[in-house]
Amino acid sequence: VKHRSLFASLCATVTQSSTFGYWSADHAIDFNPGLTNAWSSCSSTIVQTNPWWRVDLSYIYRVSRVVITNILDCCAERINGAEIRIGHSLENNGNNNPICAVISSIPAGVSSTYICNNMEGRYVNLFIPGYSKYLTLCEVEVYGEVFFRAGTGMRVNVATWGTPVQSTLYYSWYAHYALDGLSYTCTHTTTQTDPWWKLDLMKTYSVNRVTITNRPDCCESRIDGAEIRIGNNSSDVFSNPVCAVVSTIPAGATYSYSCHGMEGRYVFVNLPGTSKILTLCDVGVYVIFPGNSELLNNLV
C-alpha cells in the first residue's frame, strides 16, 4: 500500500493556474507519461508569472516522495527551478506551503524522484516562481501513507488551513495572531460597532466545535456576548447561523463550543453592539474526518 501512487485509489482533484490548449491539469495524473503524444497526456499552463499546478488529496497524508516526469519532445528546461510544496493551506493557491524540493533540472522524458521525508499535507503543488514561465508536467506521482488511523474518525483543527481577516486593525494586533498557537499574541480591532473576525476555510466543512482562548493580561470581559457563526455568506456576518454565544471566558482560558456539524466555509466571531473591541488570542475550528483503511492507505 505504501508503495502505490496515491492517485490510484482516490478521486484526486487537480487544477492549474492556466491551461494551454488541450493540456489540462488532469493529464499529469493519467498514468500516461506522454512519450508519444505530449499534447494529449501532459499538462501545461500558458506563459505567465508564477505558474502552478496543484492536487488536492482530499485527506491528510505523510508524503514520502514525489516523482515528476518531464516532457520528451521539447522544452525540457521549462521545469528548471520548479518547487514541490506540500501542506494544509490554500493561501496563495497553496504555493506558500513548505518546500519538499526544488527541481534543478530533469532530462527530457525522464522521471525524477524527490524525497519528502513524510511531510504532512493535503495539497501538493508544483510552482515555478518568475516571469514568462510555462509549467509543463507529463506525470506526477505522490507516494506516502495516510496520517489518520484506519477505520477511525479523527478530529482535526482546520483553522490554520484558512485565511483570517478582521473588521479593523488596532496597531499590529493582526487577524492571523488567532491562529499562531500562542496565547500571548492576540488579534485586536479598534473600538467600533459590531466588530468581527472572519476565517475563510477555503471550502465547506461540517464543524464539530470551535475553541476560543481569551487574552491573559487584561480586559477579559471584552469577549462577553461574542457570537460564533458558521455559514457560506462572506459579506454579511449576521446572515450566517449562530453556533454559540460566549457568555464569558476567564483571562487566559480556552473554552470549547459545540457546533454539532454545522456546515460552512466561513467561521465568524462577532461582537454585537456599539463601542466594542474584539480580541482573540487563539481560535480552533475542529472537524471530524472519517477513516477508511482501503481508501486512506492508498494515496494518489
From TrEMBL:
<dbReference type="GO" id="GO:0001868">
    <property type="term" value="P:regulation of complement activation, lectin pathway"/>
</dbReference>
<dbReference type="GO" id="GO:0010185">
    <property type="term" value="P:regulation of cellular defense response"/>
</dbReference>
<comment type="function">
    <text>Acts as a defensive agent. Recognizes blood group fucosylated oligosaccharides including A, B, H and Lewis B-type antigens. Does not recognize Lewis A antigen and has low affinity for monovalent haptens.</text>
</comment>
<protein>
    <submittedName>
        <fullName>Uncharacterized LOC107720486</fullName>
    </submittedName>
</protein>
<dbReference type="Pfam" id="PF22633">
    <property type="entry name" value="F5_F8_type_C_2"/>
</dbReference>
<dbReference type="GO" id="GO:0046872">
    <property type="term" value="F:metal ion binding"/>
</dbReference>
<comment type="subunit">
    <text>Homotrimer.</text>
</comment>
<keyword id="KW-0430">Lectin</keyword>
<dbReference type="InterPro" id="IPR051941">
    <property type="entry name" value="BG_Antigen-Binding_Lectin"/>
</dbReference>
<dbReference type="InterPro" id="IPR006585">
    <property type="entry name" value="FTP1"/>
</dbReference>
<dbReference type="GO" id="GO:0042806">
    <property type="term" value="F:fucose binding"/>
</dbReference>
<feature type="domain" description="Fucolectin tachylectin-4 pentraxin-1">
    <location>
        <begin position="5"/>
        <end position="151"/>
    </location>
</feature>
<comment type="similarity">
    <text>Belongs to the fucolectin family.</text>
</comment>
<dbReference type="InterPro" id="IPR008979">
    <property type="entry name" value="Galactose-bd-like_sf"/>
</dbReference>
<keyword id="KW-0106">Calcium</keyword>
<keyword id="KW-1015">Disulfide bond</keyword>
<keyword id="KW-0479">Metal-binding</keyword>
<feature type="domain" description="Fucolectin tachylectin-4 pentraxin-1">
    <location>
        <begin position="155"/>
        <end position="292"/>
    </location>
</feature>
